[in-house]
Here is the input.
Amino acid sequence: MTINSVSVKQVTFGKQPAIVIAGPCSIESEEHIFKEAQALKAAGVDMIRAGAYKPRTSPHAFQGLGFEGVKYLRAAADSVHLPMVTEVLSEYDVEKLIDLVDMFQVGSRNMYNYQLLKLLGQAGKPVLLKRGFSATLKEWEMAGQYLMSEGKASVVYCERGIRSFQDETRNTLDLAGAILLQAKTKQPVIIDPSHASGRRDLILPLSKAALAANISGVMIEVHHNPDQAWTDAAQTIDYSLLDQLMKECQPWLTSN
Ligand code: PEP
Ligand code: MN
Here is the structure.
């Protein structure tokens, strides 16, 4: 089955090999993101993720470094020649961020924000569209259509877990849904096992399962000192686990 390619600088989604996006949940300081970028490059990942505008459940929790954070991420990604993706929370920020980011991330909570989707559709940068945690496949697919029907955006869909009755993981990874959506839309679909499970010990097996099923990539939260990560510590892996993941996923991460 041929999947439409989506290119972000030197990275191409939708072709072999599969793509690994990794990085901390949040940018904590300039020094922090430079240090993570160095380690991510050494680990051999394709692209860096890190949040500057954080959609937190509590308004009292750390909200991210905002625009300054995106500037730090830009410089850190450039220092190791890797492309980056970061979340845009509001349509008010699109213009400000457009020349700084390589790919816009639309978060789960914003999947239904049609004004933001339309604006990003006109902006002309690739978009990583996370699935709303209560969204049906059809709603997720249509959110991507909002982006693509404006004619300029290319879309990579990201399954990040949906809400279910199961309460021992943060969310429930809908791998079947991810596979179906990729077959139906022919757009690349990746999974985010970090937000899907909320648990470090599930990142490796979920990544392998998805890559074995021909999913186009994974996005993983990594930190030098996961226990000290300012956000999402419980699901953030360290570099030794990332190395193990890169090794065990080799069959899907090298072209053949
Ligand atoms: C994220 O990836 O940084 C994030 C906030 O994820 P989600 O929108 O899926 O909750
Ligand atoms: Mn996170």
